[in-house]
C-alpha cells in the first residue's frame, strides 16, 4: 500500500492545479473582454462627437472589431477612418490642424502589428524557434502599447471637441442675447432714442435646449 499513497495524493494536487489554471484563464479572458468593450465604447463616443457630415465611419460600426476573422480587416478600417473623421471635424470648424496626428501613427502601428502578430504566431507554432517566439512577444507588446496610445489620443481629441464646442457656442449665444436685450427703440412722442424695456430673461433651460440642438446638427 505504501507506493499507492503518493499517487493518491498527486491526483488532488493535479486537480487543484487544473482548477487554478482554469480560473486564471477565465480571469484573463474576462479582463480582456472588459477592456475591449471599454475601448470600443470610447471609440464610438469619439465618432459621435464628430458631426455626421464629417464622419467617414458610423459610430456603431466599431463593434465589428469583435467579430473573429473580420477583425483582422476591420482594425485597419478603424485605424484609418477615425483619425480621418477627426481631421475632417477640425477642418470643418476652422481649427488649426498643423502638427496634429489625430492618432493616425498609433493606429497604423496597432493595425499592422495585429496582422504581423498573426503570421508570427503561425510561424512560431510551425518552427518552434525561440527567436520567432520572441518576435511574436514583441508584436504582442507593440499591439498593447499602440492600442492604448490610440485609445488615449482619440479620447483626448473627443474631450477637446466637446469642450471647445460648448464654450464657443455658449459664448456666442450669450453675446447675442446681451446685444438683443440692449437694443434701442424710438419713443414716438418725444422722437428720442431710449433704451427698450427689459426683455424677458432667458432661462438656462432655453440655452441648454439650443446647445442640444446645435450638437445634433
Automatic annotation (TrEMBL):
Superkingdom classification of source: Bacteria
Transmembrane segments: 16-41, 61-79, 131-152
Segments of this protein annotated with the region Disordered: 185-208
Keywords: Membrane, Transmembrane, Transmembrane helix
Name the UniProt record assigns to this protein: DUF4328 domain-containing protein
Lineage: Bacteria, Pseudomonadati, Planctomycetota, Planctomycetia, Gemmatales
